[in-house]
TrEMBL record:
PROSITE patterns: HIS_KIN
GO molecular function: ATP binding; phosphoprotein phosphatase activity; phosphorelay sensor kinase activity
Name of the protein described by the UniProt record: histidine kinase
Keyword Amino-acid biosynthesis in annotation: no
Keyword Lipid biosynthesis set for record: no
EC number from the UniProt entry: 2.7.13.3
Compartments (UniProt record): Cell membrane
Length: 357
């Protein structure tokens, strides 16, 4: 409870006390006058008694208010000193205020120690991620380079060439996995700062589509975009484009040849909504609440290549920018994933919502 709430509560209690006090005094004076008659001396004594009681109540009320105000000022000063590390105010007096100050200092000291430990762990994680990224890229690049050189050898047999192609394919998947995990780790460790600005979303959508268009065209999947060029959202162009690419990649992967992917965007007072809908295999209702978990793959998705990190990464990118993502789907009819991006600066959220189609 804040100090203002304490003051309001005190005023309510004081009002109730004053009303009860007046009723009791008035009732007492009236009863005495009624029982003893209208003797002048009795009336004077009654008036004097009532006046003294009212004066005493007023003094008591004023004193209590002063004590509470003084206590709240002391607490405010004590908290301010503790936060800024200045000299203690009570110097270990045997009072409740001294006990409160001591506990407050202990809490702040523990909190600062925890912050230092977290910062140390964060720096350790940063170094570890950088080492992993550096140490894995070199041998992986060598494997891919040697595979390409071997592929240029004309005397390779058919089976050898097939195996070599498989090595290249798996190396590319491993490179993508390592890159995705490093990106995710950097986001979670706070090593990457997203630069969110209010800008049109059509450019972000177009960039994401350009990276998936060839793959969609090879499967005969049409991509339709419905977006007003003036529709804006506060977002990081590069990272939001990557988040949309992950959604589009899944849409192409889980949509049969000849299907359709629709992308639309519209704004309201608080958010800009970007929908990515497909005509793919869909997601079972009971699995919708799990699809944004790290490495989760639904039953129907296990026949397709993937590791279950794309949607988790997308959700993380969107939530860091203060947005959220929802999912709606129906088996064999398709899936619609909706990204909500804020139109102005807002507090970051880390949530997602799912709902049946």
């Amino acid at each position: 409870m804040t100090s203002s709430k304490y003051v309001r509560s005190f005023k309510r209690y004081n009002l109730v006390f004053s009303v009860i006090f007046l009723l009791l005094v008035s009732g007492y004076a009236g009863t005495v006058s009624f029982l003893e008659g209208e003797h002048p001396a009795l009336l004077e004594l009654t008036v004097l008694f009532v006046s003294c009681m009212l004066l005493l109540g007023g003094v008591r009320n004023w004193t209590l208010r002063r004590q509470i105000t003084s206590f709240m000022d002391s607490v405010d000063e004590m908290v301010d000193r503790a936060i800024h590390g200045r000299e203690k105010m009570t110097h270990f007096d045997e009072t409740s205020l001294s006990s409160l100050e001591h506990k407050l200092w202990r809490y702040i000291e523990i909190n600062k120690a925890n912050e230092q430990n977290l910062e140390t762990e964060k720096n350790t994680i940063k170094e570890l991620i950088s080492d992993i990224s550096h140490q894995t890229k070199t041998p992986l690049s060598s494997i891919m380079m040697y595979s390409q050189l071997l592929a240029e050898t004309p005397e390779l047999s058919g089976n050898t060439r097939l195996l070599l192609n498989e090595i290249e394919s798996q190396s590319e998947k491993l490179e993508w996995l390592i890159t995705s995990l490093v990106k995710l780790s950097r986001l979670e460790a706070g090593m990457i700062t997203l630069q969110s600005t209010a800008s049109p979303v059509i450019e972000t959508i177009t960039r994401a589509v350009s990276h998936i268009y060839t793959r969609a065209e090879s499967k005969g999947i049409g991509i339709q975009i419905k977006c007003d060029p003036l529709t804006k959202a506060r977002h990081d162009h590069k990272w939001t484009s990557e988040a949309l690419f992950n959604l589009l990649e899944n849409a192409v992967k889980y949509t049969e040849a000849g299907g359709t992917i629709r992308i639309s965007a519209e704004s309201n007072e608080m958010f800009t909504r970007i929908d990515v809908s497909d005509t793919g295999i869909g997601i079972q209702k009971e699995e919708l609440r799990h699809i944004f978990k790290r490495f989760y793959r639904g039953c129907s998705a296990r026949d397709y290549e993937g590791i279950g990190i794309g949607l988790y990464l997308t959700q993380k990118i969107i939530s860091i920018q203060g947005g959220f993502i929802t999912a709606a789907s129906e088996v064999d009819k398709g899936t619609k994933l909706s990204i909500f991006l804020p139109k102005s600066k807002c507090v970051n959220t880390d949530r997602f919502q799912t709902q049946p189609g």
